[in-house]
Amino acid sequence: MITLILNDTKISGYGVKVTCELALPEEDLSGQSSSSATAEKGFKPKRLRVAMKVKYDDASELANIVSLSTALDEDKGTRLVYNIENQTARAFSVRQVRFSDKVSAQELDDDQAWSVSFVLVEHLSIPEKVEAMKLTQNEPKMATADTSVASEAENSETSNWLENVLKYLDSALADEGTRNEI
After folding, report:
1. Is 43 in contact with 49 (CB distance < 8 Å)?
2. Residue 173, pLDDT above cutoff 60
3. Residue 79 gets which letter from DSSP?
4. E strand or H helix at 34
5. What residues contact 5, with CB distance under 8 A and at least 6 apart?
6. What are the backbone angles phi and psi of residue 37, rounded to the nearest 5°?
7. Dist. CA 90–CA 18, nearest whole Å
8. pLDDT in tens, 65-124
9. Are 31 and 83 spatial neighbours (Cβ–Cβ below 8 Å)?
10. Is residue 164 helix, strand or coil?
11. Which residues contact 86 (CB under 8 A, 6 or more apart)?
C-alpha cells in the first residue's frame, strides 16, 4: 500500500500512484556536425505527480487536498512547504515539497469516485542548496561603517601622497627648466 503524508496529514484515497520526475536538461552544442557535445543546464527540482481516487462518500478527503494545496505561509505570502513521507520521494531524496501546477478532480460515475491528481515540486533541493552556498562564498563582503570610514581615510592618504608626488615632480621639472635657461 502506498502512503503519502504531508507534514502530519495522511493523504487518503485508493489506487494511489506517485511518479517522480528528475529533469536533466542539456543543450545540443553540435550545430550542424555529428558531434555529441552538450552543455549541462543544471539540476532542476524533482516533481512528484500524484494520481489517486477518492470516493464520493469521502468528499472531506478531497476538500482536505484542496485545502493543503491552497494553504499559504502567512509571513511570506507563498504556498506552504510540506515535509513529505513517501517511499518514492525517499528513494529520490525528496524531503520537502510544495504544491505546483494544478490540482484536478474528475468525476468517475462508474466508480462513484473522483480521479484526483496533483503535482508536488521539491523545495530546496540538494543541488539548489549547494549552488546557494557557492554564491554566498563568492559574494563580496559588505563594508561596515567602521571599515568604510577607514577606507575613506586610506583613500584620502593616498590622494594626499599622490598630490605630494605631483608637486615634487612639478617643482623638479620647474628647477630643471630654469637650469636649462641659464
Report:
1. no
2. yes
3. B
4. none
5. 11, 84, 85, 86
6. -65, 135
7. 12
8. 999 999 998 898 899 999 999 999 999 999 999 999 999 999 998 999 999 999 999 998
9. no
10. helix
11. 2, 3, 4, 5, 18, 48
Q: All 3 cell numbers of residue 49? A: 505527480
Q: Give the model's pLDDT for residue 35.
A: 78
Backbone angles phi, psi at 3, to 5 degrees: -110, 145
Could you tell me which of 64, 54, 66, 60 has the C-alpha nearest to residue 118?
Answer: 66
Task: Look at strands 26-28 and 38-40 and give their pairing.
Answer: antiparallel
The answer, as to whether pTM is greater than 0.85, is no
SS3 22: coil
Can you read off the three cell numbers belonging to residue 27?
543543450
Helix, coil or strand: residue 8: coil
By DSSP bridging, strand 96-108 and strand 82-85 are: antiparallel
Residue pair 66/103 in contact (Cβ under 8 Å)? The answer is: yes
Segment 133-168, tens digit of pLDDT: 777 777 666 655 555 555 555 555 666 767 777 787
In the numeric block, which cell numbers belong to residue 85?
513521507
CA distance to 79, 82, 114, 134, per residue, from 109 (Å): 32, 32, 8, 53
Which residues are CB-contacts of 121 (< 8 A; sequence separation ≥ 6)? 45, 46, 47, 48, 97, 98, 99, 100, 101
Cell of 65: 487536498
Query: Using the 8-state DSSP alphabet, how is residue 40 labeled?
Result: E
- Residue 170 main-chain phi, psi, to 5 deg: -60, -45
